[in-house]
Please model this.
Amino acid sequence: MTVKLLDHVNIHTADLAGTVDFYVDVIGLEQGERPTTIGRPGAWLYCGGRPLIHLIENEQSRPADTGPIDHVAFETEGYDRIASKLTDRGVAFQAKELPDFRIRQIFVHDPNGVKLELNFREG
Model:
């Protein structure tokens, strides 16, 4: 069996509103339908009709029983637009280039400290 795509990432957050805002406004995901049977506050954020990020609100942003996540990578468009939004918000990020692969990257941390790798295969 071969993995076909990233199904979703589940992130625990103490700042649900700030995390939803970050992923919707900066990253470009859309907030969408979430099962009512979960029983805990949260949100599902969609990309192309699929729930890519599952958020669960917790008092602690990192439960003791989950291991660390090094980063989550997304194929992304609009390098200049996203870099500008991050700069305007005062969010620190690191830009890198992989010229052999024609990829520009932005590494940034979301409001919970999750490192994101944004890959831009433009031009």
Remarks:
- The mean pLDDT is 85.
- The two ends are 33 Å apart (CA to CA).
